[in-house]
Amino acid sequence: MNQDYIKPDNWSIIEEGFDINKVKSSESLFSIGNGAMGQRANFEEHYSGPTFQGSYIAGVYYPDKTRVGWWKNGYPEYFAKVLNAPNWIGINVSIDGEALDLFNCLKIENFRRELNMKEGWLSRSFKATLQNQTQINVETKRFLSLDIDEIGAIEYHVTPLNKDAEIQFYPYLDSGITNEDTNWDDKFWDVLTVEHDDNQAFIMSRTMKTHFYVCTSMQTYLSLNGTILNQDKIVEERDNYIEFQYQNKVIKGDTLTLTKFGGYTVDRNHDKKELCSVAKRTLNEVSKLGFHALLDLQKNSWAKIWEMADITIEGDVKAQQGIRFNIFQLNQTYLGKDAQLNIGPKGFTGEKYGGSTYWDTEAYCIPFYLATKDQKVARNLLEYRYRHLDRAIENAQKLGFKNGAALYPMVTMNGEECHNEWEITFEEIHRNGAIAFAIYNYHRYTGDYSYIPEKGLEVLIGIARFWHQRATFSTLRNQYVILGVTGPNEYENNVNNNFYTNYVAKWCIDYAVENIERIEAEYPSDFIRIMNKVKLSKAELSQWKAVADNLYFPFSEEHNIYLQQDGFLDKELITVADLDQSQRPINQKWSWDRILRSPYIKQADTLQGFYLFEDHFTTEELERHFDFYEPFTVHESSLSPCVHSIQAAKLGRMEQAYTFYLRTSRLDLDDYNHEVHEGLHITSMAGTWMSIVEGFGGMRIKNGVLSFSPKIPKQWKTFSFKINFRNQILKVNVCQNETHFELDGTAALNILVNDKLVTIHPNSLVTV
Amino acid sequence: MNQDYIKPDNWSIIEEGFDINKVKSSESLFSIGNGAMGQRANFEEHYSGPTFQGSYIAGVYYPDKTRVGWWKNGYPEYFAKVLNAPNWIGINVSIDGEALDLFNCLKIENFRRELNMKEGWLSRSFKATLQNQTQINVETKRFLSLDIDEIGAIEYHVTPLNKDAEIQFYPYLDSGITNEDTNWDDKFWDVLTVEHDDNQAFIMSRTMKTHFYVCTSMQTYLSLNGTILNQDKIVEERDNYIEFQYQNKVIKGDTLTLTKFGGYTVDRNHDKKELCSVAKRTLNEVSKLGFHALLDLQKNSWAKIWEMADITIEGDVKAQQGIRFNIFQLNQTYLGKDAQLNIGPKGFTGEKYGGSTYWDTEAYCIPFYLATKDQKVARNLLEYRYRHLDRAIENAQKLGFKNGAALYPMVTMNGEECHNEWEITFEEIHRNGAIAFAIYNYHRYTGDYSYIPEKGLEVLIGIARFWHQRATFSTLRNQYVILGVTGPNEYENNVNNNFYTNYVAKWCIDYAVENIERIEAEYPSDFIRIMNKVKLSKAELSQWKAVADNLYFPFSEEHNIYLQQDGFLDKELITVADLDQSQRPINQKWSWDRILRSPYIKQADTLQGFYLFEDHFTTEELERHFDFYEPFTVHESSLSPCVHSIQAAKLGRMEQAYTFYLRTSRLDLDDYNHEVHEGLHITSMAGTWMSIVEGFGGMRIKNGVLSFSPKIPKQWKTFSFKINFRNQILKVNVCQNETHFELDGTAALNILVNDKLVTIHPNSLVTV
């Protein structure tokens, strides 16, 4: 653990006391979002200290100049990045002629921030003594509406404490923003119009190159002690900026409040010519409703999300806070409403990783959304990839593959690859496996086969074709091999026969064949339609099978384990426990060659295969592999601890499982990786959820039957979670000695508990 | 072969006829240089067609912004690049008010370019009909003085042919230049002063960041039919530009000539405050001498170079032209006068590879300079690395090595690494071996051991320390291994146990130990001095030996060959002959992953080891390895054909040797790799020399004795070369049935010819 300033609390993230060294960290941790937009917890008023300003709109990106020293054939021309969007939250404040700036106050007392996860709002309060000796109390509250997701709201209260004071508010819109990670201070937005109308203002801007149109808007009003003032204002307008200026003399003890509504309308949802008029309508609507009514809607909407997605833990506030923080952030990032969107690794909390789609979605996020939302949400995530199939085929063509073989990009915004490191872009091809597995997982969980004949099979065929062509025949081994790959452990590059990659490749082909046969038998018209499209011959199919049936898996007789890759045993096998702590994290301390020749594993690799295909292996096999690989694992990927927590729990190693759980659930709150200032690890948060539900809860689907083998860390009194299983809600409450099941649905549900069949009837409690 | 427009000629490179599509190619091929500066064969007058302008000053570089998508620990902060220097050759010409521009003439006849290699000058002549119907004849001659290497000279003759004409000359200096390979149009030069004095002009400029000071200067005068005119001129001066304007009415048939001297004085050679006054003095000196006297000096100086370095081939003009072109360009690039300089892969002919020092110098160029120059030249090249030893130690430290281990950079200008691809920068570590081998080679050839106790041993110790620390112990094999390297074949990255790398590593340790022991015994005071400096204990020495004595070399029992690397036999072993020609060159057609998993070899790798350590292996072993590896070799590196030519000759495969010879010697003239427009392959030109002297001549040093096993391609009547062996000049003339030896020296020389001892007495011909 590397920081410990967040107050433990069951429902809120709370910071007390102002520390300029924690501003960027808190800007990440207190981020808010509503699926359509999100923002770091930047102050509304100007702050001249170190800060990382960020406001983001879902699906709005920019193809930045590719930065590569040495070009390789096949690299994408551009590198997509999430764009910092125009600022609508800004409210500068001046007190008796001095700008309020927390970096320059004489004294700041009672500083407190709260991110209320139960109700979905962010607040801040403090007492400031300015350089001019005026003392004020400030309270702000802000949220991004789940109900009207193009809008957010802010209330900003100022109360002079030691004297009457002249208070000026300058709420503004600013489209002159840039990215923190920009090369060479490029701008990414062209401003088209800056307008205002009464107490509303609008900036129409357009991203360069991608030409996303966005109207950023605001509406503001002033009130004194809760009564709206009909106040004159000055309008200051510049190229890419508009500001309203309000001035008021406020008597000591009175509270002047600026209320601001604002947000974005984007041309993904509206005709671009109507963005400003839509914004105007929306502002009219919410201002008629008012801040508090909109906040009440917000509370209701979050209550509905929690009703379905909450996990409770009794007896361990930090663990409780951790899991709720993870669930809250996931829901802030992606709500599944729009199949054009996906889940970026940093969500709306930072710029790193370009905000794009990674295999994280399929490998980590889909189980969470499957179990906590309507199944349409997971299906939307699958369709996102179906919609990109043609581009995945083009991508494979660029790398020399033929005949409809599909390689999904490592990183993407619109289906095109937008990453350019050869060892990742060209070689971390296991991502294709996760995309096929997600289809299997969706069907396994929901029982809804319809997606596969409708859309999924084409994806499976493209992927199977890729694996068939990617394998080569080794005369030496008389088997097929897959050379030159990077596995999930990115601390090895260009290795041969990565077990995970080979295993998932074989599985992809087998699964595609199985589904082709089923669809031929059960969905003949779909079968004909698909075959006409993909032109798959029996000869090609049997070539696939030849590869799948005779693929090589590196195995050590000595250790009785599958090898991570051909050369693994050549390494100096010094465990992490024996590695000098001063060398950690190795990705910050070591040059890349040293990392590559070391045995250290960034995240589950062979064990990732044992996680996905758990039922292909015995528990003894899992234990042997876990005991071999985990000691070399440095868990320097946010995606690592969750898988290990699940497996440790399965192996009955509850202390270890608990340690991994804390690490995954409080990764950002406690800043394990020294990087929370860059943003949160959103996609790994779904892994946290898995580590409770699949790890401690032991939830699996076995032949279509929901199955549990509940375990509980000794630190906890009880924990509970709910899952949506085939449109019924099952609540599972695990105590130290028993587990309770409760079903909110209409039909009795047979489940397995520790491999014994238990029937749960609707609305009756079953204790096991 | 991909182009064929250069006229075969024994001594000159000749182009006839003007073709805008060949301009960039000819700009490279007709480049001139004098070791201190060089330039592409750009026209003096403005040319508005496609052109690649380039003028370069030895040792003047710029640390450009590193371009990397994903930063890796240990990468250098900057990427050094050769800088395009201010233009001093420019002479714009206007005829009857129309600018002469070969891209826009109505007609160009009798266009001819000649690079006279015997005398070291470049000429151009043509008859042009301008848009205004005026016909002129133009003749130009240009050279960069070997004798006064800060100066070059140009004569530019214009003769109106069909009418009297108004001729204007605008000789200029321009410091407002940029690089062809610049990112984002950056400028690299700050201009400090622009001055003129009578008919001389000076621009003082300074490179940004590196702060190299350069005075670019010119002096011009006009003559009519050979008589100097005392002509008024106008001076036009701008920020970074100065131009003289001469105007003359010239009667049809008369010839107006502009003579221009110009060049650079640099602060590597002079106090920076005196650069302009030195330039002034030099201009005064050469203008007093005059163009033709300076040209006479030039002819004499080149005659001296050829006297020593020439290789003659009778019966094959193209082969003759090829080898002279290679020898000429090498001498234009590096003359060994300045130990601060080295040999960039493109010399002064282009920007690619940043003009920096690669292992090419040690592996390819040193044998050429050893045999064709005084041994001080090769020693200067060794000292270049000695001077960089501290930085090589720092470089190794950045990668986690300790205790004085040295890793020389892959690419450097000043000793610091300036390349950033992890698979090259961090993993192509065999370069360290070439640097040690050059020391061995120097001693073997010259018999001068003094360099090793004086300087070389420290380098050898730093390198041995690196190899000792870089090897790791494999419990599996019970041997030391070297994991994660890139061998000379850059078409495999991050492989384990590259045979060449392992072999050179072991040799480096053994050679360092051998020299430590010899110096301890024979040079006790040097020994004490060095040991005090490097702090080498007996314990460390025995650790080195443990690694060298128990290092693993991958070997295939089945094929009875050493394997290029552990995984080589897992590849699909389809030979180049069976590869579809449409896929060639693979580095332009295939994505990187596909290249990496293919068996195709860019340049000699295992065979490079057999080349350097030929006497460690039998001819049968060489033959077996040659037969195994050459069929997979695509020779897509300029450094590839020469080694294979030498080995094919040794194996008596003269047809193959001859084919490889043509490919290496005419690589640029015939543009085998479709890239001559980017510049010439200077360092591989030394390989061409080796393929004649070591290949066909079979020259070796065996236990200090010069040895030959002459062979001659059937296409040749005879060929001859000279070598400087320990301060005596031996001329070797190989005919189809006999070989003649002639010694220019003072002492009889025992040599081996086909392993038989032959004594050559000074100034008497011996025929074998």
Verbal overview:
Two copies of one chain form a homodimer. By secondary structure, the first copy, chain A, is of the alpha+beta class. Among the domains of chain A are: 31-307, Beta-galactosidase, Chain A, domain 5 (Distorted Sandwich); 697-768, Maltose phosphorylase, domain 3, CATH 2.60.420. Chain A is 32% helix and 25% strand. Chain A contains 20 helices and 33 strands. In chain A, the strands form eight sheets. In chain A, strands 1, 9, 10, 11, 12, 14, 15, 16, 17 and 20 form a ten-stranded antiparallel beta sheet that branches. In chain A, strands 8-7-13-19-18 form a five-stranded antiparallel beta sheet, with no helix packed on it. In chain A, strands 21-28-29-30-33 form a five-stranded antiparallel beta sheet. In chain A, a hairpin with a 2-residue loop joins strand 14 (189-197) and strand 15. The longest helix of chain A has 24 residues, at 499-522. The model of chain A has no long low-confidence stretch (mean pLDDT 94). The interface between A and B is large, with 50 and 50 residues.
Ends apart, CA distance between termini of chain A: 36 Å
Unreliable stretches covering 5 or more consecutive residues of chain A: none
CATH superfamily of the domain at 31-307 in chain A: Glycoside hydrolase, family 65, N-terminal domain
Strand content of chain A: 25-35%
Number of DSSP helices of chain A? 20
The helix-and-strand class of chain A reads alpha+beta
- Cα gyration radius of chain A (Å): 27 Å
Shape of chain A: globular
CATH topology call of the domain at 31-307 in chain A: Beta-galactosidase, Chain A, domain 5
